[in-house]
Amino acid sequence: MTRHIPFEAIENFRDFGDYAAGQKRLKRGLLYRSASQSRATDADLEKLGGLGLSVIVDLRRSNEREKEPSRRWNGFAAQVIDNDIGQDTADEWATFIQSSDLTPQSFHGYMMDYYRHLPFQRRHIDLYQRYFRALAQSEGPILVHCAAGKDRTGIICALTHHVAGVHDDDIQADYLLTNDPARMEKRLPMVREAVHEATGKIASDEALMVAMRVEAEYLAEAFRVIREAHGSLDGYLDEALGLDADLRGRLHDRLLA
User: Fold this and answer.
1) How far apart are CA 152 and CA 164, in angstroms?
2) Which of 81, 121, 170, 234 could form a disulfide linkage to 57, CB 3.0–4.6 angstroms apart?
3) What are phi and psi of 20, to 5 degrees?
């Protein structure tokens, strides 16, 4: 199947269902992931409205949401999950970019460190907890997104796949679908300008590509620190996110065909 769903101005929109999960299979047309909808065209909104979304999970910080508000379609009635937890702490990306030498190595180091901390931040734990509960309780499709739909979104989608019983190889392959060469080439000038506005400096295309890509080692690092802290991914899901046997059963009923 073609997982990427084309929109005029919503990037990285994908169906992350329809994977084998043991003897069953994740449903198609139920699980969607993307970048933000702040630049959505009217045609995009009409297409979004036609998906019948019941829940949208916005993983962005409040400053991101305020700077680039999501556009909504006429008759919008989906539940929106977001939070303002942690707004008293620094924006990790803004802090990094101001002090960075903008080399590929510095971007890579930032991403590795970000993935080490992301699973344990209070704001992400709250959002991930509420996402799984909404996923178990809602009836229509669900969309999870952040700004670029690659890191915060990538981890929660990977955890969703794990809960459903998707094979590790498919979890990694789905995560890496963010690295669409045509999309990244198209985004490159915008990211270059954003970095220039924030720093007054011009980053190399090589460095910017590191910033835009995901790497298998990033997800592996997040899973490594999770296992180190909780013994296993399931330990994290249970202890940090509250996915007990009852909730897991409801998730399986909802997700698997």
Assistant:
1) 19
2) 81
3) -60, 140
Sheet-wide strand order for 142-145: 14-15, 31-34, 142-145, 55-58, 79-81
pLDDT in tens, 72-88: 999 999 999 999 998 76
Residue 32 corresponds to which tokens in the numbers above? 């969607």
State the SS3 of the chain.
Answer: CCCECCCCCCCCCEECCCCEECCEEECCCCEEEECCCCCCCHHHHHHHHCCCCCEEEECCCHHHHHHCCCCCCCCCCCEEECCCCCCCCCCHHHHHHHHCCCCHHHHHHHHHHHHHHHHHCHHHHHHHHHHHHHHHHCCCCEEEECCCCCCHHHHHHHHHHHHHCECHHHHHHHHHCCCCHHHHHHHHHHHHHHHHHHHCCCCCHHHHHHHHCCCHHHHHHHHHHHHHHHCCHHHHHHHCCCCCHHHHHHHHHHHEC
What single letter denotes the amino acid at residue 129? Q
Question: Both tokens of residue 64?
Answer: 């991101």
Q: List the Cα angle 49/163/92 in 5-degree steps.
A: 70
Instruction: Give the per-residue pLDDT at 93.
Output: 84
Query: Domains along the chain?
Result: 14-255 (3.90.190.10)
Average pLDDT over residues 174-187: 93
